[in-house]
Amino acid sequence: MNTIILIAADLAAITILTLALYLRRHRRRDLVVSYLGMNVGVLAVATALSGSAAGVGLGLGLFGVLSIIRLRSTELAQHEVAYYFSALALGLIAGIGVEPLWLTLSLMALVLLVMFVGDNPRVLPAYRHQIVVLDRAINSEPELYARLEEVLNGTVHSATIQELDMVNDKTIVDVRYAVRPLHQDLSQPRHSQLGFNQPAGALTPAPEELPAQAPQPASQQTRQSVPTSAGVA
């Protein structure tokens, strides 16, 4: 009876993981098929081996083999790797069937909860990671940060130069940044706030001065200083 409950719980969990979470947020149908097939396959093998004495060891070995195969195939993003291991874990937990039953169901619910919170778009929504190709060879860190913040319209937290081509005048940078809010003042680039000194010899603009008032003619000054009498004819 417990086996039927665990199989039903795993099918419900993998459906929530792939269709309600992954497909809704990332829209990759090919990986949905991969997650579903791999989860059901691990569930079937783990369930068949759970009655044997070496069932747990074989299940963990299967987990390791599938992990190596997946990581050595086409490149996946880090969040896709997280979904892959979650699908593996759900099938393995349901197939082995830890006693008591509520503990198995709780572990499966914990996997779903972690993925729901960790991959939620509202968690650190402004942070981005991108590979940027600049049409200039820039080896100065302050200038590089200023250029990247101008191009990305964000606050650069980390910039690692992957390729600096002086011949073709090109720079490839691995950038981690946060999107700048629309209401934030863009006149002051962040690289000036990171402790980078102003280059030597740079001129500091002088404060704006008011235009000098032109002197008035002497006749106007005399006319203003002499009062007129009301009784003069």
TrEMBL record:
Query: What superkingdom does the record give?
Result: Bacteria
Q: Where is this region: Disordered?
A: 188-233
Kindly list the residue ranges recorded as spanning the membrane. Answer: 6-24, 36-69, 81-114
Q: Which portions of the chain have biased composition (kind: Low complexity)?
A: 202-225
Q: Which Pfam families match?
A: DUF4956 (PF16316)
Sorted UniProt keywords: Membrane, Transmembrane, Transmembrane helix
Report what the protein is called: DUF4956 domain-containing protein
Gene source species? Paenarthrobacter aurescens (Arthrobacter aurescens)
